[in-house]
Write a structure and sequence with these properties.
two-stranded antiparallel sheet; 2% strand; mainly alpha; 170 residues
Length: 170
C-alpha cells in the first residue's frame, strides 16, 4: 500500500514538472509562433490542454513559475483571435518587441526601486585620494605614516610570471 502511494506521488511530481516546463516555454514568442505555424492550435485537444493548464495561475502553483510572462500568454491563448495572430510574422515581431520593452522598463524600474530602498555604501577612497588628504591635512609626517601602513598594497603579485620581451615586460 505504501509503495503504491510513493509511486503515485512520483508520477504526480513528474507530471507537474513537465506541465510547469511546458507552461514556462510559453513565454518564448518564437515557440508560440512555432506552435501556430505547425497548426497545434487547430487541435481541439491541445486547446483544451491549454485551458486545463490555467490552474498554474493559482497558488501554490504560481510560486513555481520562473518566467511570469508565460502566464500572460497562457491566458491570452484562450482567445482564438490571439492564436490566429501568432501565425503572422509581423505580429510575432511586434510581440517580441513589446516583450523586450517590458523587460527594459521593468529592469529600469527595479534598479530605481532598489536604489531608493537600499542605501549604497560610499565609494571606497582611492589610495591617491588618501595620500592627497593626508598631505593636505597633516603634512609630510602623515604622508610617511600612511605609506608605511598596511592599507596600501605596495607590490603587485600574480600567479603567473609577467610575459617579457627581452628585458621589457609586455
Amino acid at each position: 500500500m505504501e509503495g503504491e502511494y510513493e509511486g503515485k506521488n512520483s508520477e504526480n511530481k513528474a507530471r507537474f514538472l513537465q506541465e510547469l516546463e511546458f507552461v514556462q516555454m510559453l513565454s518564448n514568442v518564437d515557440y508560440l509562433h512555432h506552435l501556430s505555424t505547425n497548426r497545434f492550435f487547430e487541435d481541439k485537444a491541445f486547446v483544451n490542454y491549454l485551458s486545463y493548464l490555467q490552474y498554474m495561475n493559482k497558488r501554490p502553483y504560481v510560486n513555481f513559475i520562473g518566467f511570469p510572462q508565460c502566464l500572460y500568454f497562457l491566458r491570452h491563448l484562450q482567445d482564438s483571435k490571439f492564436r490566429d495572430e501568432l501565425a503572422k510574422p509581423e505580429f510575432v515581431a511586434w510581440l517580441k518587441n513589446q516583450q523586450r520593452l517590458h523587460w527594459g522598463y521593468w529592469g529600469y524600474e527595479l534598479k530605481h526601486w532598489l536604489n531608493e530602498r537600499i542605501e549604497e555604501p560610499p565609494p571606497p577612497v582611492q589610495p591617491e585620494a588618501q595620500l592627497q588628504q593626508a598631505s593636505d591635512q597633516q603634512g609630510e609626517n602623515a604622508l610617511a605614516s600612511l605609506l608605511n601602513s598596511q592599507d596600501i598594497p605596495m607590490t603587485f603579485q600574480t600567479d603567473t610570471e609577467m610575459p617579457m620581451v627581452g628585458e621589457v615586460p609586455l
